């Protein structure tokens, strides 16, 4: 009989685009490098063994991928193929990148996750700084719902009816005046059970391009109450103020996911701050 796959603790899906080469480079040099330096590869370089922060005799398996579609520019495709061969950490989805297909990119990422024996699935954009060990510690030490769907929650986000707006939605796609509560798209975490429920519900509920709001619609349909992690580990804001300069250590130490819209330079700036924190993590 085949040996059952060992359950992974977290699968981290880093949402990127083929042309975001500098973002991926910055992540590999910053928060991903810290995680890699404090873990051991198992079988594949992107499957890591991390010591359980609350039980030193226990190991946790964590896997990560950059998730990309395809580019219409052959030069970009060639570079990404080479990058994938070197690092072995890129999951390519079979479609051409565009914002209108973001929800399909997300659902296909979740379909991939559904086949992985894993406890938690993280979706994080490539313009967010993620301290993996702090996140794992929080997941291990916090009482969380069995059906976890958490992040920085957005309440009463209006459905925008202006056809010229990036976030326009038709009444045919969504007929409410505001969306159900949902975690802000650049970072959220869900239990494997929620992944499976979302995929099943998505077969019957019409999708639309704002993937985070769409997942909120699925959650409401399923009776899943999103978990507020803002101030409890996440800080996700559009055009985040320059907190890497002004935040005190206590605020930084309490946060494991911060963004979004962080340039490579700002990812490195947050990285320098995290490295200097006087904590048991370093």
UniProtKB/TrEMBL annotation:
<dbReference type="GO" id="GO:0006493">
    <property type="term" value="P:protein O-linked glycosylation"/>
</dbReference>
<dbReference type="GO" id="GO:0016758">
    <property type="term" value="F:hexosyltransferase activity"/>
</dbReference>
<keyword id="KW-0735">Signal-anchor</keyword>
<keyword id="KW-1133">Transmembrane helix</keyword>
<keyword id="KW-0328">Glycosyltransferase</keyword>
<comment type="similarity">
    <text>Belongs to the glycosyltransferase 31 family.</text>
</comment>
<keyword id="KW-0333">Golgi apparatus</keyword>
<keyword id="KW-0472">Membrane</keyword>
<keyword id="KW-0808">Transferase</keyword>
<protein>
    <recommendedName>
        <fullName>Hexosyltransferase</fullName>
        <ecNumber>2.4.1.-</ecNumber>
    </recommendedName>
</protein>
<keyword id="KW-0812">Transmembrane</keyword>
<dbReference type="GO" id="GO:0000139">
    <property type="term" value="C:Golgi membrane"/>
</dbReference>
<dbReference type="Pfam" id="PF01762">
    <property type="entry name" value="Galactosyl_T"/>
</dbReference>
<dbReference type="InterPro" id="IPR002659">
    <property type="entry name" value="Glyco_trans_31"/>
</dbReference>
